[in-house]
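User: I'm new to structure prediction. If I give you an amino acid sequence, what do you actually give back? Let's try with this one:
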Amino acid sequence: MALEMQRSEDLKTDEMIINMGPQHPATHGVLRLLLTLDGEVVKHVEPVLGHLHRAQEWQGQNRTWFQYQALIDRVDYLSGMFTSWAMARAIEQLDGTVVPKRAEYLRVILSEMNRITSHLLWLGTYLIDLGAMFGFPFYPFREREKLFDLFEEVAGQRMMFNYIRAGGVVRDPKPEWFEQLKKFTAEFNDRIDEYEAIVTQNPIFLDRTKGVGIIPRQLAKDYGVTGPCIRASGVPLDLRKTKPYGVYPELDFKVISVDKEGGDTWDRYMCRILEMRESVKIINQCMAQIPDGDIIAKKQTAGMRVKAGEGFAAVESPRGVIGCYVISGGGEKALRFRWRNPSFCNLSILPELLVGAPISDIMAIFGSIDIILPDVDR
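Assistant: Good question. You get back a string of structure tokens that encode the predicted 3D arrangement of the chain. For your 378 residues, that looks like this:
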């Protein structure tokens, strides 16, 4: 027995380098993680980009303003309202455009609906990543489809909206549309209760998420992490409150933030659950307060121009702060576009989170960050 114990202590494993992706289904796109493992423990991680380069900024400088508006929905394809809104606000800052009040309310309503659809897809796919294949992951898609029907009616498309334009929005919803939305918000909190009854205190889910992938508050700040990832670490950073825009200053809602030093994957889950409840409150307030009037202040034509100068605007997307910086020469095309994409910054913290974790926790940690690969490899 003593000899066997001595031999076991002398045993050493060689480090092994393996690729996780770019075809791994749980990376939600063509992300390649170059892992260095000691047994089943992660020693080093290198995210490898470049498999899905979208040339987002190059296209903005080689398309007209009118053409480019339709392309940016396809970058963070789950948050098209927010990319359009960031670009529109940057252009409006350059032009000095005053957006009609009704359009500002519609922007908030449609964007908060988009926040809900994004969080619902994250919830369903995250549970699949953790191995929950018993049907629940498809429950969130039930409500998501209802919102997609509303998006399709007002924007003409279910995902690539091209609805928010420079100066306002492209179409005014019919009165029946608002009635359908009211019906959705009236029942949606009950649907969230169903999700929580199955997931929040599920012992398997708790084992996979509690104490796993903790992001210390200062580390999140150092890496420029935003969105639910930093709010789950105790930093109440939300541009809707910290740097208000649109009609958010006129609305009553809470910034969901965890009151502790560092958040784990369970905290990030809870932040998104509670944010959906706040989005319902925001939508209901907007529907109650929305005034009549125009919905767009700038004429939308193929040859539209933007005044010369520089503009920057940022909005709070489901994944965090998305910013658009633009330089205009006064013509039909921009001279320069530069985007601040939240998925890119949030992904950068992944090597810090995974080192020392078992390989079985990689997808629990990675999935909790909620990364969209075109938003990373822009």
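You can read the tokens as a compact description of the fold. Here is one thing that stands out. The CA atoms of residues 97 and 167 lie 6 Å apart.
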